[in-house]
Design goal:
Blueprint: H1 4-13, E1 15-18, E2 22-28, E3 34-39, H2 46-63, E4 71-77, H3 80-83, H4 86-98
Parallel strand pairs: 3-4
Antiparallel strand pairs: 1-2, 2-4
Helix pairs in contact: 2-4
């Protein structure tokens, strides 16, 4: 997802799944799954926000097989996204994606 309107639609009308290190906002769509990434301003410096965003993108790449086939997703990083080991971050994201109705089963 790239446009501000796409992000705002999910922030306003999307369903929410909370995890300690991240939040997944989602809604069903007719198009194939698209994901966008955002990081809370609770992470004060841009360096920390960019690092958290990179970690979330990589965790999504590792967990993408658990995502539903047709959805719009925004993955919002919390401050714990920097402290959590990468395997834990990936497990949290995989669990959140698997919790979306109509999602794929995790193997």
């Amino acid at each position: 997802m790239t446009t501000s309107a796409d992000f705002q639609a999910l922030f306003q009308r999307g369903k929410r799944i909370d995890r300690p290190a991240l939040i997944v906002l989602w809604r069903e769509t007719a198009e194939p799954t698209r994901a966008g990434f955002a990081v809370s301003r609770q992470l004060k410096s841009a360096v920390q926000r960019n690092r958290a965003r990179r970690r979330l993108r990589e965790a999504y790449r590792a967990s993408r097989d658990a995502a539903p086939p047709r959805a719009a997703l925004v993955i919002v990083g919390r401050p714990a996204a920097l402290r959590e080991p990468f395997s834990g971050l990936t497990a949290q994201l995989r669990g959140a994606l698997a919790a979306i109705p109509g999602g794929r089963t995790t193997r």
